[in-house]
Amino acid sequence: MNQPLSRRSAIRVGGASLFGLSFPQLLAATEKANRKARVKSIIFLHQWGGPGQHETFDPKPDAPDNVRGWFGATKTKIPGVIFGEKLPKLAAIADKLTIVRNMQHSVSMKNHNSAGYYSLTGIPPAVDDQRLRDSLELFPAFGSIVNKFLPSEKGVAGFVSFPHVISDGSVTPGQHASFLGKTNAPLLVTEDPNNERFRLPELTLPEGLTPDRLEDRRSVLDLIDSQSDLLEKSLLAKGLDESYQKAVAMLTSPAFKTAFDLTKEPKDVRDKYGRTTYGQSCLLARRLVEAGAKFVNVYFAKSIGGPSGGWDYHGFRGEDVPGRLNFLLPITDLTLPTLIADLEERGLLDSTLVVWVGEFGRTPKISSNGGRDHWPACYNAVLVGGGARKGYVHGASDKLAAQPTVGRVTPEDLAATMFDALGLDPDLEIRDTQNRPLPISRGKPVKELFA
């Protein structure tokens, strides 16, 4: 005999219908979300500004001077494959990596905000606008989609993003839940993990307020009001009225919050990651997937360029472009191998997929003003862990690293590949503000990237 729906179940089903899913659609979505998964978590290392393929994973040492650039190349553990000479540690572990050398935009997005949105969602914006404005009409972040269909355990934030909100003129869209609502927003932390006082601002339970009393919704809202000074420092507390059960779980489960206490890591481990904002952010990412987070966004930098910014190295007359690269490349060569080794040592690499990618690459020819301009026609991505093929180079570029010569992988395909790795059908639909069905990805998983 069929059991009747409990009040709690009915509320859950009713809540689902408010977001455009009927009960049959909800069941179908659950079936699609329960496909066999290769990984439990993804660490998405977003290289804001656009790393140059010539200086990283696709150097062209035999090209003319104005193409090959400022540095040479170094051999890797993959026969016949070379990396940029400033990445010797990565070259030494190339047999663990999957290198994608044929990334290409399906449309020519040459502005940072447009291409950034594309790289963070897998969806191209309608226009290539340097000041692309955020709106609920634009697509949600990868992690918000993951959080909607693969919610984490009680007390764990499924989607965490740090340590910046990236922008170029205006805030770059694609960093939050958009039309999926605040219940799927990331836990956004903008404090510097390299700061010795770094902690997750947290709501605390006053004496006498037990977990049982949290069943009273009013008690939680009163608690939030009483600690309003903390709300400005952490988006964990914002939107709690929309995600009441998540709020209760966070308040009553200290385990996840402990992951943010980097002082519990041995000094030598922290030193291996590098005492930089990016290095300590990657260490935090490892601690978060260990604590159960499903999708972690780590932004290399807040700004596209500048002395301590991201990978935008157009160069201008008088600017020291090699000096900029001598800041960017050593950080990458120190931190990424350390993260991989740390995940492997802790038995987390098989269940975690690490993805390293920016919004585009750099022009083959060095600009007359020095440096390289934006180039979406050919750039690189790196995958490691989670069953990704080891020591594998996917695709190839021409002799100038200007165009792919073997195949093409788009941001849509990379998005589909990540969703597929987590067990989500890329054709799974979400509903926008107009209740229109939209697939979570417009691409196809690149099956060749996995063993």
TrEMBL record:
Q: Enumerate the SUPFAM superfamilies for this protein.
A: Alkaline phosphatase-like
- One Pfam entry for this protein is DUF1501
InterPro entries noted in UniProt: Alkaline_phosphatase_core_sf, DUF1501
Stretches of the chain forming a coiled coil according to its record? none
Transmembrane residue ranges:
none
* Domain of life of the organism encoding this protein: Bacteria
What name does this protein carry?
DUF1501 domain-containing protein
